[in-house]
């Protein structure tokens, strides 16, 4: 797998720099919505970037499409803006209307993934909610339900760059997990894949705006 090394190094450069600066990083997509960061966790292929992209097409702003860097400041968990380009599966693009595609901004490259440059959010924004794409649910509807109590293993298992496991990093991961558990609502999204990205984005956007948005940024 030697030919994959340059790709891996490029993908990990910014997250590695974030960790070395004392931040913590999650394998998550995130957007800025109504003054709050809304982030998506889930296994590879669960639809994190697709869901974030649909929210971008509805007026949200990009924070990251792959890795979310976070810091804490007292009781506040902050999500930091990552790269300005989002990589979107071409099938997800084909399922959008022309207006939704236009809302994603300039297309930098086309292929199996489109590289687009959507409007970006602030350099940092309070983390308002984490949504876990559970993969559960066999019907056509989308259900958003609270995860309570928060499982620290879920957050620790979503850490990016897991091979960086020194004492300082592990302590920081535990501190971040505790801060999220104490102050950031965590929700599971069931049925997102079976219902389709448009329905999932509508459900999450409505839920986020009614549940976590509106507090002072």
How does this structure look, described?
The protein has helices at 5-20, 48-56, 90-94, 98-103, 152-157, 167-183, 192-195, 197-211, and strands at residues 24-27, 29-33, 36-41, 61-64, 67-73, 76-80, 86-89, 106-109, 113-117, 124-133, 143-146, 186-190. The protein has 217 residues and is an alpha+beta fold. The protein has a domain at 24-83 and 122-211: Phosphoenolpyruvate Carboxykinase, domain 3, CATH 3.90.228. Strand 2 and strand 3 (36-41) form a beta hairpin.
The first-level CATH class of the domain at 24-83 and 122-211 is given as Alpha Beta
Tell me about the largest β-sheet.
9 strands, mixed
Task: From the alpha carbons, calculate the radius of gyration and give it in angstroms.
Answer: 16 Å
List the helices and strands in order: HEEEHEEEEHHEEEEHHEHH
The coarse overall form would be: globular
Q: Under CATH, the topology of the domain at 24-83 and 122-211 is which?
A: Phosphoenolpyruvate Carboxykinase, domain 3
Helicity range of the residues? 25-40%
Number of H/I helices: 8
Structural class: alpha+beta
Beta strand count: 12
Question: What is the rounded distance between the termini?
Answer: 44 Å
CATH architecture of the domain at 24-83 and 122-211: Alpha-Beta Complex
Portion of residues in beta strands equals: 25-35%
Low confidence ranges = 1-8
Could you tell me the mean pLDDT?
Answer: 85
Keywords:
Phosphoenolpyruvate Carboxykinase, domain 3; disordered N terminus; nine-stranded mixed sheet; three-stranded antiparallel sheet; 8 helices; 217 residues
